[in-house]
Every structure is written in C-alpha cells, then in structure tokens.
C-alpha cells in the first residue's frame, strides 16, 4: 500500500527532487507551488509515471491560513498523511546593517513560521489518525556555519534545527519522528551562468561537484523510511563536505572583507537556493 507525503515548495529545485524520490519510493505525493503552474503540472505527470498519485496546490505559506489549509488539503487528497516535508522558502541575503525590514519579515513569515505551522498541522493530522509519521524540515549548512550576509537567513535555519529537537521530544510519544536535512550548495537551475558558477565552485567541494536536488531527495527518503525508525531530532548534512574545511564561499574573485565583495550578486543569488 502506498503512503502519502506532503512536500511544500515541490514544483522545482530541491522540492521537485524530493517529490521524485518519494514517488519512486512508493509514496503518493501532494505538493505546493507558489507561481510555477506549468512546472507543477509537468511534475504531476512525471510523478504519475512512477506509479504515484500526484496532487498540486498553489499556496503562499507566508499566510497562516494557507499553511493549515494546505495540510488539510493534502490529507484529504492523499487519504492519509505519513510524512510531511517543509521545504518552501526563499534565500535572501544582505549585509546585516542594510537588511530591509520587508525582506526580514518575509524570511520570518515563510522560512520560519511557515515551517512551524505546517509541521504543527501535519503532526495534528497524524495524531488524530493515530498514525506514526515523519516530519522533515529543509534547513541549510548556514545553520551551523556563518557566511557573509546571512545573519537573518542563517539564524532562521539554525532556529529550525533547534526547534526540530524540541518537536521530536513532544511528538515521540505518538511515534512521530522529526528531523532536518541541511543542504550545502545545490544547483537548481541550468542556465549557462549558473552552470559555470557550479562547475567552478563544485570543483572546490571535497566530493568534487555541486549538489543536485535528488541528493536532498534521497536524504529525505531515508529519514522518512523504516530504515531511519530510530532517528529523531537529528540534522543530516548533505553538502559533499562543503563546510568541513571552512573554504571561502566564492571560488574566484575578492576575499572576505574586501569592499568589492561579492563580485556578482546576480550569480551569487544561486549560492544556496531555497525552493
């Protein structure tokens, strides 16, 4: 019997990699998208090719009601909710002294409150159904390693890792496990500019390449599976060894502290994509 999983921000990037891996592992998949309607429809058809039932819903998880309504929709569409993956988010980085209030609020509403409310609603569904389950939140290596301009983004990711530990304690009695996956650099787009950056940066990662969405999907698949039945409150870092040596984030150009850093924001916006 197939299980059911909700993946937020599943239409592209890391989220689509998670959805594919879960469908291939025997899950029916419900996922949200913000505005990428064509990509969402295409992914539904792809997941159905793996034998899964697939459902998509447009949602803005900055809104409290969308978080709760999304979980209720997923539970009804799937018939049961065995796993929930909180992935929808954005990557916004600025020098802390110049961080715009509006962008700060977006990060707190979507990347923090959106995750917590979605996880809370999913836990309530699982508890009400009397079913064990798994909740996975996608964080970042920035939760444990500071990079320039990530005080707010990285701080929120660190908060999620700590929150997951407390959630794991509260939900253990119901057989619900809560873990986080911390990606490093994941190439989510294939434009020539991004590919060139990924090739250069990936060569300096210990495992010799940039990450792929499916690398995160396989980690999520494992944490939701019976093979991880005794794992809860943990963070699984999936970064190819990126932060082990403490290497600079930029493969070429000025060093940290140089007034010209970063050299090209348009390219560096793809450093650690969220959704």
From TrEMBL:
InterPro entries: NAD(P)-bd_dom_sf (IPR036291), SDR (IPR050259), SDR_fam (IPR002347). GO terms for biological process: bile acid metabolic process. GO terms for molecular function: oxidoreductase activity. Keywords: Lipid metabolism, Oxidoreductase, Steroid metabolism. Pfam families: adh_short_C2. It comes from the Bacteria. SUPFAM superfamilies: NAD(P)-binding Rossmann-fold domains. PANTHER family: 3-OXOACYL-(ACYL-CARRIER-PROTEIN) REDUCTASE (PTHR42879), 3-OXOACYL-[ACYL-CARRIER-PROTEIN] REDUCTASE FABG (PTHR42879:SF2). Belongs to the short-chain dehydrogenases/reductases (SDR) family. This is SDR family oxidoreductase. It comes from Luoshenia tenuis.
């Amino acid at each position: 019997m197939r299980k059911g999983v909700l993946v937020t921000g599943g239409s592209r990037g890391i989220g689509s990699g998670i959805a594919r891996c879960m469908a291939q592992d025997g899950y029916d998949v419900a996922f949200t998208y913000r505005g990428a309607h064509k990509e969402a429809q295409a992914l539904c058809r792809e997941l159905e090719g793996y034998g899964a039932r697939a459902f998509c819903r447009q949602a803005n998880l900055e809104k409290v009601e969308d978080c709760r309504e999304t979980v209720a929709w997923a539970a009804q569409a799937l018939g049961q909710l065995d796993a929930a993956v909180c992935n929808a988010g954005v990557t916004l980085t600025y020098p802390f002294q110049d961080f715009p209030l509006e962008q700060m609020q977006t990060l707190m509403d979507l990347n923090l409150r959106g995750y917590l409310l979605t996880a809370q609603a999913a836990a309530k569904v699982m508890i009400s159904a009397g079913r064990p389950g798994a909740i996975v939140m996608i964080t970042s290596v920035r939760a444990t390693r500071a990079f320039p301009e990530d005080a707010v983004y990285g701080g929120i990711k660190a908060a999620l890792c700590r929150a997951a530990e407390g959630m794991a304690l509260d939900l253990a009695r119901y057989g619900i496990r809560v873990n986080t996956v911390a990606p490093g650099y994941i190439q989510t787009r294939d434009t020539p500019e991004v590919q060139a950056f990924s090739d250069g940066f990936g060569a300096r990662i210990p495992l010799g390449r940039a990450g792929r969405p499916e690398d995160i999907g396989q980690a999520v698949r494992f944490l939701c599976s019976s093979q991880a039945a005794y794992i809860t409150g943990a963070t699984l870092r999936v970064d190819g060894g990126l932060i082990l040596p403490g290497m600079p984030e930029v493969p070429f150009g000025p060093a940290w502290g140089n007034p010209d850093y970063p050299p090209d924001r348009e390219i560096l916006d793809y450093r650690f994509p969220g959704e």
